[in-house]
Design brief:
single chain, 455 residues, TIM Barrel, 9-stranded mixed sheet
């Protein structure tokens, strides 16, 4: 068993293994991370530790498991020469990381579209200036944050969007931009930061008139033009982009058509059920999905999984920090206020973007106090952190609880029930997960992966 120890500059996905060895590593000015670094390297599982030895560490059994899954274990730190080999162990439950792995930044609530499923608050006290956002981004980096997700509203309505994106990359953050795509022109596509530290995703919520019905007349044509421009940049400089499909009433039927397009153009398509936030609270599909709609969704999911496993040899995992499931064993709950948080356009900080949408559990404001103080001392954050999966009593007797942990979500629970620890799954989610379990699709995916690997 070997653990590689390296500086960030020494890590090269196409190069030799970084130097250093030993199953236990502690010391240096170690940076905190626990995630797949998919943009910088995919073959390593990265973890970091603080020099005082009192923090989040991973035990040897977990390292063995990661190696059995084919990952190389990398400990990434600022100064490997100062590292000390010492046995450490992961506590059973962590309340939070010393800094979020990533922060969602909502630059603005302004938007050029009027989408039927929008969850963003419409009332806000203005938005921060370019200078203020740069100071905040620098503070996040100083605190130990690894990445930011830039969103809105529609972030491209800000004329300084490229300046902010480049600044975040330049200070050393991984940056992901979420946009509706309709404002992307040739200059923007050519001027974004280079991969691998920058990526973006665009919203596709139907095909042709279905998409327009969700997002507004003419939005589909503008989105397809943006996709064409980004494909050119992907072919030219490897720009990483994907499409996001929010499944809701009226657009389920066109999901497979959208998937056909993405598979033929080698574009990743991510789709998820709409959340019961904002305008979607009364959505018919979420509350009363038809069996046919669930079957369409399952068919699309199986086609997508089959494509990526059979064309890449395995399902490529995204950054662990994008996956809420990754935090469950560590914290006994979701990553909100534990490994991630969100900042509103006016600088207010919330446990996650869904709490921001609801306007509850404000942690503080970054224009009035340092981010580290908000993260470490917020009473609102501590209240969220105290809620674990053990508090979701009704889930303990649920037949799909073992595969439905994403909906043990305090924010979604509050949106549906007014309480933080009730079931947060919509009827659509329950029906979908029930079918997944009945057909053992998780087992099907694992078996497919084994066959492709020749095991």
């Amino acid at each position: 068993m070997q653990v590689f120890l390296a500086k960030e500059s020494e890590v090269n996905p196409n190069g030799p293994d970084p130097p250093g060895s030993g199953p236990f590593v502690l010391g240096g000015e170690l940076m905190l991370a626990l995630r797949y670094r998919a943009f910088r390297w995919e073959r390593y599982f990265a973890l970091g530790m603080k020099e005082d030895g009192r923090l989040e560490f991973i035990d040897t059994n977990e390292i063995k498991r990661l190696e059995q899954e084919g990952h190389k274990v990398l400990v990434w730190c600022k100064d490997p020469e100062k590292a000390v080999l010492k046995k450490v162990r992961l506590p059973h439950r962590l309340q939070k990381l010393t800094a979020p792995l990533f922060v969602v930044i909502s630059l603005t609530n302004r938007c050029n579209l009027q989408c039927k499923h929008c969850a963003q608050p419409k009332e806000f006290e203005g938005e921060l200036s370019t200078k203020e956002w740069k100071e905040i981004i620098s503070d996040l980096k100083k605190t130990g944050v690894f990445g930011v997700v830039i969103t809105g509203g529609e972030p491209l309505v800000r004329t300084d969007i490229l300046e902010i994106l480049h600044y975040a990359v330049d200070v050393g953050l991984e940056v992901h931009l979420k946009t509706n795509g309709t404002l992307i022109d040739r200059n923007f596509a050519r001027s974004t930061p280079d991969p691998p530290y920058f990526s973006l995703s665009l919203s596709l919520d139907g095909w042709e008139e279905t998409h327009d019905a969700v997002r507004g007349e003419g939005s589909f044509a503008r989105l397809m033009k943006a996709v064409e421009l980004l494909e050119a940049e992907r072919d030219k400089r490897g720009l990483n982009f994907a499409l996001n499909y929010t499944v809701m009433e009226g657009n389920v039927q066109s999901l497979n058509t959208a998937l056909d397009f993405c598979l033929s153009h080698n574009i990743k398509l991510f789709f998820e059920l709409a959340l019961p936030l904002g305008k979607m609270v009364q959505d018919r599909f979420l509350s009363a999905p038809e069996d046919e709609e669930i079957e369409i969704l399952l068919e699309a999911w199986k086609r997508r999984v089959f494509h990526f496993i059979t064309t890449t040899g395995r399902r490529k995992r995204g950054m662990l920090l994008w996956s809420s499931e990754a935090f469950h064993p560590l914290f006994g709950g979701c990553g909100a206020a534990r490994a991630l948080c969100a900042i509103a356009p006016n600088g207010n900080v919330y446990p996650c973007i869904d709490f921001y949408s609801l306007g509850i559990y404000k942690m503080g404001n970054v224009t009035r106090e340092a981010f580290a103080s908000i993260w470490n001392d917020s009473a609102a954050a501590d209240e969220v952190r105290r809620r674990t999966f053990d508090d979701f009593e009704e889930c303990k007797s649920c037949e799909i609880a073992d595969i439905c942990s994403n909906f043990k979500c305090p924010a979604l629970s509050y949106a549906l029930t007014g309480e933080l620890t009730r079931c947060g799954a919509t009827q659509a989610a329950k029906k979908l997960y029930t079918k997944v379990k009945e057909e053992d699709l998780i087992g099907w995916k694992k078996e497919l992966r084994r066959k492709v690997k020749g095991e």
